[in-house]
Specification:
Layout: E1 7-9, E2 12-19, E3 22-24, E4 27-34, E5 39-41, E6 44-45, E7 48-52, E8 56-58, E9 61-62, E10 70-74, E11 81-85
Parallel strand pairs: 1-3, 2-4, 3-5, 4-6, 4-7, 5-8, 6-9
Antiparallel strand pairs: 7-11, 10-11
Length: 88
């Protein structure tokens, strides 16, 4: 987890990455969550990508597996959280 004041400049590889601070670099993880106020700049490879409202992702995304693409809204009565599975 990268906290609100945390900054990583470099590549990250983990099972699950949660970002509320800033990451500049490539991220390889089974699950990536960018929380409100979080920022990720770089290429990602992941099976699951969640970006909360006010979260920022600048870069390119590649799915780790060859599952069908899917995008869905989670709990539409709450602030919008989008879960996306993207395949290249």
């Amino acid at each position: 987890m990268v906290g609100k004041t945390g900054v990583i400049i470099g590549d990250v590889s983990a099972q699950k990455v949660i970002i509320s601070g800033s990451v500049k670099g490539n991220v390889d993880a089974k699950s990536i969550e960018i929380l409100a106020g979080g920022r990720l700049e770089g290429a990602i490879s992941s099976d699951e990508l969640v970006i909360e409202r006010k979260g920022v992702f600048l870069g390119e995304s590649k799915n780790q597996t060859n599952n069908a693409d899917s995008i869905k809204m989670i709990n539409s009565n709450q602030p919008k959280i989008i879960e996306a599975k993207i395949e290249e």
